[in-house]
Design brief:
single chain, 246 residues, alpha+beta, Sortase, Chain: A, two-stranded antiparallel sheet, elongated
């Protein structure tokens, strides 16, 4: 018996056409936004890698300058005053000519800064120059932070008081991203611009709101302290790490 196959003709209604157009438009938009997101991610990764390279270059240049400024014994300047001792001999006054004058530099965005020293955290493989902006303005700090950790507040480096350093958390292994993983007892090394290094031991770590700056207090009881400041992974709060000179 012969079988006759009858195929029903599919009628495309106006409503079906409209839904098809919407589907195509949504598909194209999804691809477009996906490309945009991938591009943003690639650019952000490139910017972070570039900032890391610039930061390491600043550190290397500072270390080379530090070596050039190392003072030999023969470089000590002796100034003789007119004052005399009881035996009639003149009293020589030895002036330490160690070069503590830091070279002013300029960022790509035009901000002036000096390299105040170096922060090293062996546990998390951190070693960066500490920049100190000329104006200490918020805009300047934000711009310099893209390049390296920045002095936020406090006395001269490695002096009595609370020396505060702020750095970005990029949620990777760069800059201060791993600082939130530090614990009490870990060591932070701070080296000044002429190579003098002091080790600090962490004694406290906590989280505060962005508006809370109590961590910058200079009430240290006559001791040398440092404070590291960075963002939490969601950037909503701040991680505070306190350390005291050993």
């Amino acid at each position: 018996m012969n079988q006759i196959l009858i195929t029903k003709k599919l009628y495309i209604t106006p409503e079906l056409k409209r839904k098809k157009k919407i589907y195509k438009a949504n598909f194209v938009l999804s691809i477009f936004f996906l490309v945009i997101l991938i591009s943003i991610y690639i650019y952000a990764a490139y910017a972070r890698d570039k900032a890391e390279a610039v930061s390491q270059e600043i550190l290397q240049n500072a270390e080379m300058e530090q070596e050039d400024n190392t003072v030999a014994d023969s470089d000590v300047l002796i100034a003789v005053l007119n004052d005399t001792t009881d035996d009639g001999n003149e009293t020589p006054v030895v002036l330490d000519t160690t070069n503590k004058n830091k070279t002013k530099q300029q960022s790509a965005s035009g901000y002036t800064y000096v390299v105040d020293g170096k922060v090293t955290i062996p546990k998390i493989n951190v070693e960066y120059a500490i920049l100190d902006g000329e104006s200490d303005s918020e805009a300047e700090t934000e711009e310099l932070l893209k390049t390296s950790p920045v002095k936020f507040h406090g006395p001269e480096i490695n002096e009595v008081g609370n020396y505060c350093i702020v750095g970005h958390n990029y949620r990777n292994s760069k800059f201060f991203s791993k600082v939130p993983t530090l614990v009490n007892g870990d060591i932070i090394q701070i080296t000044d611009s002429v190579g003098n290094m002091i080790q600090y031991q962490i004694y406290d770590k906590y989280i505060v709101d962005p508006t809370d700056v109590s961590c910058t207090s200079q009430n240290t009881g006559g001791k040398k302290e440092i404070t590291l400041i960075t963002c939490t992974d969601d950037s909503k709060q701040r991680v505070i790490v306190k350390a005291r000179a050993i």
